[in-house]
Amino acid sequence: MTVVLVHGNPETDAVWGPLVAELGRDDVVRLSPPGFGAPLPDGFGATVLEYRDWLVAELERFEAPVDLVGHDWGGGHVVNAAMVRPDLLRSWATDVIGLFDPEYVWHDLAQVWVQPGPGEELVDSMTGGTLAERTERMVGLGMPEDVARGIAAGQGPEMGRAILALYRSAPREVLDRFAEDLPVAAKTPGLAISATEDHFVGTDAVRRRAAARAGAQFEVLEGLGHWWMVQDPAKGAEVLTQFWASVATD
Question: E-strand spans in the chain?
Fold first, then answer.
């Protein structure tokens, strides 16, 4: 069964490197959302709806349903795909299920990105500069240098444009409309990964409520943060492998 990984912001597929090594499988595919390590196609507006449709189109290329895993905004795209095309999935997993609860509030960075002017300034400071400077910023966030360099190599003005467009297309009222269909995701086995030190994805209560509505298993990663797949890839691989084994025996 193919495993498909989808990352988020401000990342490239290099963020999955340590986890892929721990999984030790030869059937893992990493998909890069446009603007995040892959070019932005002409006419692609980088909205939350367009990313959902992009992911669905990519999944349609596989001959059989896949085990889909998403991190950060990639996890949002995963849930959105599970709500409209559960037939394309054997299972799904996300670490941002809390986005789909009405009480979720965007984190401080996101609240700046949606503001014309300050958003552009903040994104430029994040994705600009030399490769060495961008690498240093990612190392400062807790990335190993090789992973940080791989992510930094994909950062720049195009990623900045995608970040702004994506967040500005997803105010609370838009996410609430998506969340109305959250129970549809329960048609396929789901896993909500909850890293206790991830302060970007809402409270424990928010995460648990959304997971329950989606019919998803809930797995707590104690002491890990937003980049759990880099902090403790062995634990991440263990959790995912156990989940996939449970799906196989259902």
Answer: 3-6, 28-31, 66-70, 89-94, 190-195, 216-221
CB-based contacts of 213, cutoff 8 Å, min separation 6? 100, 179, 182, 183, 186
pLDDT interval class at 249 (50, 70, 90): low
In SS3 terms, 53-111 reads as HHHHHHHCCCCCCEEEEECCHHHHHHHHHHHHCHHHEEEEEECCHHHHCCCCCCCHHHH
Nearest to 139 by CA among 249, 230, 232: 230
pLDDT in tens, 75-101: 999 999 999 999 999 999 999 999 999
- Which residues, in sequence order, are bridge partners of residue 216? 190
The predicted model gives 63-80 an average pLDDT of 98
